[in-house]
UniProtKB/TrEMBL annotation:
Pfam families attached to this UniProt entry: PorA
Keywords in alphabetical order: Membrane, Transmembrane, Transmembrane helix
Gene source species: Nocardioides panzhihuensis
InterPro entries given in the database record: PorA
Entry protein name: DUF3068 domain-containing protein
Residue spans crossing the bilayer: 278-299
């Protein structure tokens, strides 16, 4: 019986070692994948002035952005995100968003959909295949919603919606936020003749567009293991070719948004560490332990060579 139990332990030990190897070489890579259950709300606060803010002087504003994955439009390799953003002047009991024709506190509202590679976090080619012709952004490339898993200390191509092309997200420094290591990236975009808004035809990048100067900056703090945003601040200024200032705004993540992002990042780091480090290490340790116990039980369960014959011979000598 002892030998049978020993063989069972040997089998369990071998299985644990194989499982540890699979988790070590494949598990972390499989876990470092953008999930389908993303549904987040990000809030920035700051000031804005200009025609869109309906004020020549800076007024307090809040920018609320929701980001939700669309599993039905996604595939095993590509995830589709739908984003909606709204900047509201903060006067009285202000909602997160409203219809511009119904509330003059609305500064801007935006919507976009994009398809992202679940491994690299880069937007994929042929956006229309995933989000439809009416929502697809032409020639969209680079990073849009997050940085890649295992973000490095180097520059990245970063998509700018207004310019309709990528700009450079420049690595600056390592920064600690709420006990979490982040990489600071600086993004700067500008154009003296940018398409600031669709014209009366409602279609961007046509001769009817409202054009002018565009300047924007972003400071983004990225948790490198997950590639997720922890903190961000941004500025934007648009002036039409006729000299009308549309908007001059500066905003940054609210403290609760930063705290929530840091908390989520720490939880996701722990999950990746569990799958990529602790399960393999624990699997190896458990596998070796089971193998040693199994080997000991098998060897202890064996009868000494010649033991039965020796006993019989002894009895014969005594009887004689």
């Amino acid at each position: 019986m002892r030998r049978v139990i020993g063989y069972v332990f040997l089998l369990i030990g071998a299985f644990a070692l194989v499982a540890a190897g699979v988790a070590g070489f494949w598990g972390r890579d499989a876990a470092a994948t953008v999930p389908f259950n993303v549904n987040t709300t990000t809030v920035l606060e700051g000031t804005a002035s200009g025609a869109l803010a309906k004020s020549d002087q800076p007024v307090k504003v809040k920018y609320t952005r929701t980001t939700e994955a669309a599993p039905k439009d996604s595939t095993d390799d590509v995830v589709v995100f739908v984003e909606a953003g709204c900047i509201m002047v903060q006067e009285g009991d202000t909602p997160d968003c409203a219809r511009a024709e119904e509330d003059d506190r609305v500064v801007t509202t935006t919507e976009r959909a994009y398809a992202m590679d679940r491994k690299t976090s880069e937007v994929v080619e042929d956006q229309a295949k995933y989000v439809g012709e009416d929502k697809a952004v032409a020639n969209m490339t680079g990073l849009a919603g997050k940085f890649p898993f295992g973000t490095d200390r180097h520059d990245y191509e970063y998509w700018d919606d207004t310019l309709g092309k990528t700009v450079i997200a420049t690595y600056v420094d390592d920064v600690d936020i709420d006990g979490l290591k982040t990489y600071q990236f600086e993004v700067s975009a500008s154009d003296d003749d940018a398409s600031l808004s669709p014209g009366d035809d409602g279609v961007k990048d046509t001769d009817d567009d409202i054009r002018g100067t565009y300047e924007a900056t972003q400071t983004i703090y990225v948790e490198p293991t997950t590639g997720s945003y922890v903190d961000q601040s941004a500025t934007q200024k648009m002036v039409t070719s006729t000299g009308l200032e549309l908007i001059d705004a500066e905003m940054s993540y609210t403290d609760p948004t930063v705290a929530k992002n840091a908390e989520d990042a720490k939880a996701n780091i722990a999950k990746l560490g569990l799958i990529g480090t602790w399960i393999p290490v624990g699997g190896v340790a458990a596998g070796l332990l089971f193998l040693l116990i199994g080997l000991w039980l098998v060897l202890r369960g064996r009868k000494p060579n010649g033991g039965a014959h020796a006993a019989a011979d002894d009895r014969t000598l005594v009887d004689a």
